[in-house]
Amino acid sequence: MSKFLFTNLWTDDLGLPTRTVPIASELAKRGHHVTFCNPAPSPTKIIKQAGFENVIPSLQHFPTIFAPMTPHMWNMDHGAAMGGYLDEAFVRDSVEVLTKLMDDVDAVVDSWNLSACMAARISKKPLVSIIQADMHPSNRGLIWWREPPDDIPTPVPVVNKVLSDYGLPQVNTVAELHVGDLTLCVGIPETDPIPETEDITHVGPIFFQTPDAKLPEWIATFSEGKPLIWVYAGTPRYQSLASVLDSVVVLQASAAALADEDVRVVMTTGHQELPDELSPLPDNFRHEFFLPGIALAEKSDVMIHHGGHGSCMTAVYAGTPAVIIPTISERESNARRLASLGVADFLLPEIDQSGEKRLSAEVLRDKVREVLSNPLFTQKAGELGKKLRTYGGAAQAAQLIEDFMVRP
């Protein structure tokens, strides 16, 4: 049996751990030993709930040099520059800490943690990388519908300096480091296109939900035969990164748009507190910290969300159309791909002078009415959902990882 270290980008979001924890659970069922390394509060709850050890890294140097924060992240280089990888001391420290954690493991399974990808190579440990299509270096990045400027910030000089000191090859983009010895792509070719010439396997969506997960009994009486709408925004506020990455606009616009509509709305916040400005919610709303996603999506007539990859896959898998309010470019990419497939529509929020995102309640209300009344959205979501269900998800990923570990 093998020992695996699972790593994710260290942000307080559920998207990445809810795709890696199910794979870890599948491997654990097969007798493998799994440890996580993710210090963020909400992921820590998910990891603990699944019963895994979570090693909290002891960093000595936190990043102090950042590219200007913007929701318009062009590619993985840009994202890493905004995430502190322009700071050489941080890069060296985070890589060193993770390298030490890899001493006693057989392989690393990562999703979006650049330091872990570097450390795996330094440690000469096999790297399994779980990515989305826009992360792959053969694609055009996160804003593929526009031509990029020439001055996108990049941490490549810093990263290459560190790689060189460990005797490792240089890279042209950090996206190259997210391609592992085995690379798995969540989603399917329709939602996450990657050139067929690349050595990568689509495993379909991966969800953090047990087969026997049930919704609370109040859901049945709450809807009372009226359309049920599920609103989810990921992390509403990122505190120090407020406004730039925040998704609270999804909650604000939904509350304003649907307060007087003849619908029932369930608003979940993924173990995050409901922002104070949302209290009290309208009478036809109910807030919950967390509910089983697939079960709730299947019960809902429309899902309103922030465009996170997991949320996109959840709605489509359930055959539920969506109105997407993408709050960063990665989410806009997801929204554009789903809209092109006819399973969702999207509205781009505006950013005011203070940096806060705004969306007209009237515009959102009209869009929700349109999606609710047009059966083509539900039809196409159902058709695409059937395709997603033909993929193996976490079980397929675990089997591919096992097969990879016994290759000669």
| Helix and strand composition category | alpha/beta
CATH top-level class of the largest domain: Alpha Beta
Question: Termini distance?
Answer: 16 Å
Q: Multimeric state of these chains?
A: single chain
Per CATH, the superfamily of the largest domain is Glycogen Phosphorylase B
User: Helix and strand string, N-terminal first?
Assistant: EHEHEHHEHEHEEHEHEEHEHEHEEEHHH
Largest sheet: 7 strands, parallel
Overall strand count: 15
Q: Cα-atom Rg, whole angstroms?
A: 21 Å
- How many helical stretches? 14
**Given the C-alpha coordinates, what overall shape results?**
globular
What is the helix content? Answer: 25-40%
CATH architecture of the largest domain: 3-Layer(aba) Sandwich
Whole-number tally of structural domains: 2
Name the poorly predicted regions: none
Under CATH, the topology of the largest domain can be stated as Rossmann fold
Descriptive report:
This protein is an alpha/beta fold and 408 residues long. The chain has 2 domains: 217 residues, 3-Layer(aba) Sandwich (Rossmann fold), CATH 3.40.50.2000; 171 residues, Glycogen Phosphorylase B (Rossmann fold, 3-Layer(aba) Sandwich). It contains 14 helices and 15 strands. A 7-stranded parallel β-sheet has the order 3-2-1-4-5-6-7. β14 and β15 form a beta hairpin. The longest helix is centred in the first third of the chain and has 14 residues. The protein is globular, with a radius of gyration of 21 Å. The chain starts with a strand and ends with a helix.
